[in-house]
Design goal:
- The protein is α/β, with parallel strands linked by helices.
- It has five domains: about 160 residues, Metallo-beta-lactamase, Chain A (4-Layer Sandwich); about 45 residues, no CATH class; about 160 residues, Rossmann fold (3-Layer(aba) Sandwich), CATH 3.40.50; about 240 residues, Tumour Suppressor Smad4, CATH 2.60.200; about 35 residues.
- It contains 20 helices and 28 strands.
- A seven-stranded antiparallel beta sheet has the order 17-18-16-28-25-20-21. A six-stranded mixed beta sheet has the order 1-11-10-9-8-7, covered by helices on one side.
- Helix 2 links the parallel strand 10 and strand 11.
């Protein structure tokens, strides 16, 4: 309700609004003085100045929103300003405006609808409800208003008399036009003894039980004077034990808690004390990080609801999210406000390597949600390029409660950031006599999926295998993928040897030496070089395919989306302005510009150059789409890698064909900390950097594209459908079934046509 209503039509803007003196407004917590002017204990945004009476939870709703307070100047007491960072660590301290008791501040405001200027003076009056509590007296062009908030003025209290004098001095003989009074305990039947009497009664109880330990529950501000009185009266110390810490921890965890009925349709609806400001769902790959994955899931399940923490070895993320969003839609239709807010605020946490993170990102992309949740990544892998790029670090985290609580707080404060998604399609076509076999499903990366459809000439080909998937960090091919494949194969055979990140990295380096990566020219034939393996084409934003010339010495090629590769190295580096102009490069490379940076390496020594400050690989191009067409007979296989997950790709020796195409496929939302090294278009604009080819949402596709059907999804999950869509689909399915039965009876030709149509439909595995 407006505290400063607009002046009636025709009334002089400088006149005070006419109102009976002493008019009383009995209001709930949190008031907006006027649309777009001033708010007290109400923090939903849209005002020009905000005021906080004190730090009790029922007066701070909205301040704990994800990302921290960012809406505007926030006035409070000096004590509240000191305590604020401990309660809301994500706040921008420059927005706090501390007021001492009795101090005043001038506000220059304007009505958003008319632009008319309004002058207001606010004075802080001690409320004595708890440390730092204030009343606010507003005087100015639109009248005199007093907002009490929670207060406690007792007749015999010296501080109350001083507060009353401060209020009368601030009024200077003026009359309060509107009083906003907290009336929670104003009923005559409610009578409370003065605080000094209560404190003395408690001291007497303690004295009467000298052999007992006395525990005083202090879960919020307001009991400090009582504790001091007890300490002085009994000449003893007051000791804070872990109970207080547990209460603080439990209050914090409520911000992340999701009740069971949100996940399980059959469970009874729970009453929650508060709507979580940052509800999270946690997916953990318990095989990652040696024993760390298992330890981490134990800690998360101890702190959060078991229903919101999932082991990826037991439950696939697509099934979890399908069920969750289906249930939330049903609850929202039934008017469940908790489900609606959880749906709006939901954030995902995935703990694992880059491949595990890519698996979840593919699922979120394929669900095609109207408001997809952003994702935070816990570095449990060996390279951890995705977590490192967005500020989550590259070292495996601690699994104790303190470390997990710290990570949850970082998730709550993290900002959302969009990154490009990249679709990859691999098509294998072979004639009947071919020796090229498809990849075994168990050898596929998590983010690569089989896609089946009938080949154009079934009589001519024994099979036509197509695989599709996505990546968010990099696709690589060549010797780096070969070393990675050897590492993963060794880990499958001897998982007990891969228990921590440091030993994994040592094993990786050892395999790089034994695989000949440091003496590639001696250990590997020229047929293993990229230029001999495949013909590479690229498409820039212009939309025309052009051949990319690969130097003969390049044995590894990387298509890079993020500024991190092989555990935090940046292969692209920072080219000089001369090289930028010569090669038509767009700088700086951004994670949401719709372009991949393509880099080549000759051998491991070339890779070690990245350790120097200005080191980089061989910059080949920037592209919106990339195509690899493999030469027949060059070799019988090639090693490839998607976001850290390698595989051995068979190649044809005859007239068969293997074609790999990478294309831009929209964007996903990541969560980034203040240590994020990835840069997006918004950051580039803030640095006044011109990025002419940047495109945050374009998905260029050709109408005659051979892979148009495959590129509709990554294949990680079926798109989520809302209730109306499901009902329509069920009716359509029933119609098809009836049509097929009639066709079987009336016209066999129609039946064959329908069967052929269903064979052409994609199948996800």
């Amino acid at each position: 309700m407006p505290l400063f209503p607009s002046s009636p039509k025709g009334q002089n803007s400088n006149r005070r609004r006419e109102r009976e003196p002493g008019e009383l407004r009995r209001e709930g917590v949190g008031q907006a003085m006027d649309e777009g002017l001033v708010s007290v204990d109400k923090f939903s945004g849209g005002s020009q100045a905000y005021f906080l009476t004190h730090l009790h939870q029922d007066h701070t709703r909205g301040l704990g929103a994800a990302g921290g307070w960012r809406h505007g100047p926030l006035y409070c007491s000096l004590v509240t300003a000191r305590l604020f960072p401990t309660r809301f660590p994500g706040v921008d301290a420059s927005l706090l405006r501390p007021l001492a008791p009795g101090a005043s501040a001038s506000l220059s405001l304007s009505f958003p609808s008319t632009g008319r200027a309004v002058s207001v003076v606010v004075t802080a009056i001690p409320a004595l409800h708890c440390p730092g509590s204030l009343m606010y007296l507003f005087r100015g062009d639109l009248g005199c208003m007093l907002y009490t908030g929670d207060f406690r003025w007792e007749l015999r209290c010296e501080r109350a008399r001083a507060a009353k004098k401060a209020l009368l001095d601030a009024l200077a003989g003026d009359t309060v036009d509107v009083l906003y009074l907290d009336n929670t305990y104003c009923h005559p039947s409610l009578s409370f003894p003065p605080r000094p009497i209560v404190a003395e009664q408690i001291v007497n109880i303690i004295r009467a039980h000298p052999d007992h330990e006395v525990i005083i529950g202090v879960d919020t501000l307001g009991k400090e004077d009582l504790l001091l009185h007890i300490s002085r009266a009994l000449q003893t110390k007051v000791v804070q034990d872990s109970m207080k810490n547990n209460l603080v921890k439990n209050n914090m965890l409520k911000e992340f808690y999701i009740p069971t009925y949100i996940f399980v349709p059959e469970s009874p609806v729970e009453k929650v004390s508060q709507i979580p400001s940052c509800p999270v769902i946690v997916f953990i790959n318990t095989k990652s990080g040696g024993q760390l994955g298992h330890d981490l899931i134990v800690t998360y399940r101890k702190l959060l609801n078991n229903s919101q923490v999932f082991d990826l070895l037991e439950e696939a993320p697509d099934k979890v999210l399908h069920k969750l969003y289906g249930n939330m839609e049903r609850l929202k239709r039934d008017g469940d406000t908790v489900a609606a807010e959880i749906h709006r605020r939901l954030r995902l946490i995935v703990a694992g390597g880059d491949g595990t993170a890519g698996w979840l990102l593919g699922v979120v992309s394929d669900l095609k949600l109207v408001h997809p949740p952003p994702v935070a990544t816990v570095p449990l892998g060996t390279g951890n390029n995705l977590p490192y790029s967005f500020g989550w670090g590259k070292r495996n985290p601690g699994t104790d409660e303190k470390s997990v609580l710290s990570f949850l707080q970082s998730v709550r404060q993290a900002k959302e950031m969009k990154i490009d998604s990249w679709h990859i399609v691999m098509k294998m076509e072979s004639r009947k006599s071919s020796t090229c076999d498809p990849i075994a499903p168990l050898d596929l990366p998590h983010s690569l999926h089989a896609f089946h459809r009938v080949p154009n000439n079934p009589q001519d080909k024994e099979y036509s295998c197509t695989f599709r998937g996505g990546f968010w960090n990099y696709f690589s091919m060549g010797m780096d993928a070969q070393v990675s494949y050897a590492f993963h194969s060794e880990r499958k055979l001897h998982p007990e040897k891969f228990k921590n990140q440091l030993s994994n990295q040592k094993t990786y380096l050892k395999l790089a030496c034994t695989q000949g990566w440091f003496c590639a020219s001696l250990c590997h034939p020229m047929s293993r070089n990229i230029a001999h393996l495949s013909k590479v084409k690229i498409m820039k934003k212009s939309g025309k395919w052009e051949t990319l010339e690969i130097p003969q010495s390049i044995r590894s090629i990387v298509c890079l989306n993020l500024p991190s590769f092989s555990g935090g190295l940046n292969p692209w580096g920072t080219p000089s302005e001369r090289k930028q102009r010569k090669r038509d490069l767009v700088m700086p490379p951004l994670v949401d510009d719709g372009l991949l940076e393509i880099v080549g390496f000759k051998d491991a020594w070339h890779g070690l150059v990245l350790l120097s400050p200005k080191g980089h690989g061989t910059r080949l191009a920037q592209a919106h789409r990339v195509q690899f067409k493999f030469h027949k007979g060059a070799t019988d296989h090639a090693y490839m890698r998607l976001d850290g997950e390698p595989w051995n790709q068979p190649l044809p020796k005859d007239d068969g064909k293997v074609l790999v195409e990478i294309s831009h496929a929209g964007q996903v939302k990541m969560l980034a900390t203040k240590n994020c090294i990835a840069k997006g278009i918004h950051e580039a604009l803030a640095m006044s950097t011109v990025h002419p080819e940047s495109s945050s949402s374009s998905d260029d596709t050709d109408d005659d594209d051979d892979f148009a059907e495959e590129r509709k999804n990554f294949g990680a999950a079926l798109s989520f459908r809302y209730m109306d869509d499901v009902t329509k689909e069920e009716k359509l399915t029933q119609s098809r079934f009836l049509y097929m039965r009639l066709g079987a009876l009336v016209c066999p030709i129609i039946t064959k046509s329908i069967l052929k149509h269903t064979q052409d439909m994609p199948v996800c595995h």
